[in-house]
Every structure is written in structure tokens, then in C-alpha cells.
Amino acid sequence: MIDPSKGTVTGHYKQFLLNVMDVLDNNSLMSNSYLIMDNANSQKNPSISRIISYREYRILFLAPFFQELNQIEQFWHQLKSKAKEKIILPKKQFKQELQRLQIWQ
């Protein structure tokens, strides 16, 4: 079981990849396919590359992006920085606070 308080770590990502590749292995058209990754540390771990190569898949890393150009990243950045200042609220109050801060309409 993944502990959400610890975030995504390489071990979680490895298990996810193994599950994905198990599904891909059942479709002969997916043989030697590319697995597209972003630049997260867990995805750049050398053990991840070895697992993928061993299973005869290939890796394609996305180009780095600029947070300023990605609206969802801007949203989460604002939400996190403003939420750090607040105590944990019940769901209804949390939504009201987001509306008050004009983050969520």
C-alpha cells in the first residue's frame, strides 16, 4: 500500500511500470514500444531504465517544460503556497476558502 503522505517514490513508480508493461506484453502490437516519461526524478532513476530495457521497451523523455507556460502547474503552485498558510479545514470550508482566494471559481 502506498503511503500518500510520503509522495511518489521510485519504488511506487517501478511497481506502476511493471503493471503497465504486464498489460502491454499481452498485445503483440505493443512490442518494442516507447514509454513516454517526463523528467521526474523517479522516472530518471537508472533502475527504471534497466527494467524497461530488460522488458524490451524503449524510453522517450519529454522535453523539459516551463512551469510559467503550464496552467495546471500554476494553479497547483498557487494552491500549495496559499494552503501552507492555512490550517486543515473540513471540505465545505476548504472550498469556500479556495473561492475566497479566487483560486477556484
TrEMBL record:
Tell me the leader sequence span: none
* Superkingdom as given in the UniProt entry: Eukaryota
Q: Name one Pfam family in it.
A: DDE_3
**What Gene3D superfamilies has UniProt attached to this entry?**
Ribonuclease H-like superfamily/Ribonuclease H (3.30.420.10)
Query: Which residue numbers delimit the Tc1-like transposase DDE domain?
Result: 13-86
Listed transmembrane segments: none
InterPro entries (UniProt xref)? RNaseH_sf, Tc1-like_DDE_dom
The GO terms this record gives for MF are:
nucleic acid binding
What is this protein called in UniProt?
A: Tc1-like transposase DDE domain-containing protein
Q: Which organism is it from?
A: Suhomyces tanzawaensis NRRL Y-17324
